Structures are given as structure tokens and as C-alpha cells.
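[agent] plan:
  1. take the single chain provided in the ticket
  2. run structure prediction with default settings
  3. attach C-alpha cells to the ticket
  4. add a short note for the reviewer (M.T.)
[agent] executing step 1
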Amino acid sequence: MTVMSMQRIGQEGGMDMRTATPGFRRQRGVALFVGLVFLVMLSLVAIVVMKDTLLETRMTTATARHEQAFEASEAGRLIPETVLAAHVFNRGWPNSWGGSVPDSAFDLNATFVHRPDWIELLDPATTSGQGLQKCGGVGLVIFYMPQACGVHADNYSYSPSDWDPSVIMTTCSDGGATCESNRKIKTTVAMIRDGVTVNKGSGAAQSQGYASIGVGTARGGSALYLQIRSQATVPGNGQAATIAQYKLNIDH
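[agent] step 2 finished; step 3 output follows
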């Protein structure tokens, strides 16, 4: 029998030496197992990377919201510079806001020449619960005289979170006049009377005029000190609060 005849017989019998080898079958099984192990490891690495990426995204978003809230809080503390001088000078609030001072005397347009939108924002009648707040639910808050309502008395609480709000305003994050609720910024400002003192060189110091302004208290004036806490909440529930002392000179 020739070699060709033996090959033909092997083929006719359906025999294949590669498939008939047990070692070859075992090698194919190990390769599949190793491939599955690598697939699981790559999946775990991908999951860890995704979790780190999500964490960094959340941290970046939280930082951005905090910065936005901080800027809004700082902007809220500009209210005293705009309104307190006129309020103390006129000894009250304008009639249109529920006060006792004629609007012509208060001159809202001149007081808010740089922020005309605050005329509406501070008006307590514009939106329920917004604008200037009331003392004990009765009259509007005042700052030139001590108020015995809540913690607005002279001996107020030194816990800023307990201070009663003096002004509550809602604005839009894009600076527009109107916006959806998820784009609104709420700012709450509490202004607490912190005492009154005469200016340097007034009163008893007038005899030392060469070293000071050397005038009486009525002419030299006094200073009203306020503690101001401004808290802002921005879209996404970002919050920030700032506290500062404000000095208002009273020379009349």
C-alpha cells in the first residue's frame, strides 16, 4: 500500500490528527479563560476611571455653584451703600413701600440711580415675602433706632444664623428681569444694628481741635455700625454667606 493510499484511507475514516490531540483541546480552553480574565480586568479599570471622572465633574460643578453663590452674596451686601443713607437721612421708608416718608422726599430714582431695578426688588408689595421685611410682622425694619423685635434689639444674638432677614430678593442668574424657577437666585440680607458712636474729634474731643476735627457732636456727626449677613442660594442649591461690618456716617 502506497503513502497516497494511506492518506486516502485516513480521510475516508474521518480522522483528523489535530482534533484528536487532547493537549490541543486543553490549550484552546486556557486561551478562552485568559481572555475572560483580561475582559473582566479591563471592565473594572473602565468602571474606576468612570467613577473618578464623575467625581471630578461633581467637584467642578460644586465649586462653580459655590463661586456663583459667593458672588451673589457679595452683591447683596451692596444694598446698604445704596439705601441706608437715604433711609437714615429721611428717618423712614417711602410711602410706596409702606413707610411714612413721601416718595418725593425719598427720591427713589436718585437713590437708586445706579441700580434702578432695586426699586422694585426692595418694594415689599411687589411679591409676597420679598423686598424689605417687617419687624415682628408689623412695621418695616428700621436702623436709625433700636428695634425690640426678634434679635433686632441692641443686645442681639451673636449667632448670625439666628438674625432676622431685613431684605429678601429674587433675581435671575442671567441678569434678566424674568426667568424660570430653576434659574433664580435668592438673596437674604440681615442687617443688625451694632451700636452708635461719635466720630473722632466730636463731642468731648472738640477741645483738642488741633489734633482732630474739633467740632461738637451735632456738627462732627456720629457713626452707625451695622453687622450685615448676606446669604445667596443659586440654581443647583449652591449656597454661600458673607458677613461684614458696615459703618454709616451720620452728620446731620
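[agent] step 4 note for reviewer: The longest strand covers residues 184-198.
[agent] ticket updated
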